[in-house]
Specification:
CATH class of the domain at 2-111 and 178-218: Alpha Beta
Helix content: 10-25%
Bound molecules: zinc ion
Strand content: 25-35%
CATH superfamily of the domain at 2-111 and 178-218: Class I glutamine amidotransferase (GATase) domain
Structural class: alpha/beta
CATH topology of the domain at 2-111 and 178-218: Rossmann fold
Radius of gyration: 19 Å
Largest sheet: 9 strands, mixed
């Protein structure tokens, strides 16, 4: 299992900031740590890397791409978004975390506005496991509780999920589709909500479990070329099947 972990890596570079205190080496390093412990091969890349780290070589290598971005979605070059999108259609898995709901690659892949409501007030979140037989919810109980989170509320402007895994309830009363799956081309996409940069969400063992499960689920069978529309002038029925 080859996992390319993409992090914007801007919040955590700000001196004396909460994100830097919680994730001194970046969110990507923490995610890489627990995925490696689970036996996965990982590469970490960031926005400021050449081609944002999304070289053809890295995209060829990866089975699944994890994406975390927030304050600099607009700085991701459209040409690189197009490249990643082609790879998703060829079978690269995408695990989009938290504020990646507004990442160019997520919006392009799903085709809707991906808007939502939000509030940063350290509220309790309870993620209900609404799909207990789904591969992504294995090893978890009937819910996950996070004591301090940023609230995301409905309506979440996404296409109807092919499979819904978690629905969140927040202390303030809102609800949200926190774990949702889609397929686009040969690619599988999993969105998972938790992960605001000022809370230590990615150290939570249940969150780590969901992300690991999500990576396993999102691995597909990649094609080595883009899909095509071949002209078939003669049918098998006409020319006969090779014996
Ligand atoms: Zn956030």
């Amino acid at each position: 299992m080859n996992v390319l972990i993409w992090n914007e890596f801007r919040h955590e570079k700000r001196a004396n900031s909460k994100p830097k205190e919680i994730y001194p080496d970046g969110i990507h390093t923490v995610i890489a740590g627990f995925l490696e412990k689970n036996g996965m091969e990982v590469r970490t890349v960031t926005l400021d890397d050449f081609e944002h780290g999304c070289s053809v070589e890295n995209l060829e290598w990866a089975d699944v791409l994890i994406w975390w971005g927030h304050m600099a979605h607009g700085e991701v070059q459209n040409e690189i978004v197009e490249r990643i999108h082609k790879y998703i259609l060829r079978g690269l898995g995408l695990v989009a975390l938290h504020s990646a709901h507004f990442a160019k690659i997520f919006i392009k892949t799903l085709g809707t506005g991906c808007t939502l409501s939000w509030r940063e007030a350290g509220e309790k979140e309870r993620l209900w496991n609404v799909n207990p037989s789904h591969p992504i919810s294995q090893g978890l109980g009937s819910y996950i509780e996070l004591q301090n989170t940023e609230m995301y509320g409905e309506p979440f402007d996404i296409p109807e999920p092919d499979e819904l895994v978690f629905i969140s309830w927040f202390e303030g009363g809102e609800v949200f589709r926190s774990g949702a799956c889609w397929r686009r081309g040969r690619g599988k996409i999993f969105y998972f909500r938790p992960g605001h940069e000022t809370y230590p969400i990615y150290y939570d063992l249940n969150v780590q479990k969901v992300i690991s499960n999500g990576v396993h689920w999102a691995k597909s069978f990649k094609s080595d070329s883009d899909a095509s529309c071949p002209n078939i002038p003669e049918s098998i029925e006409t020319i006969g099947v090779d014996k």
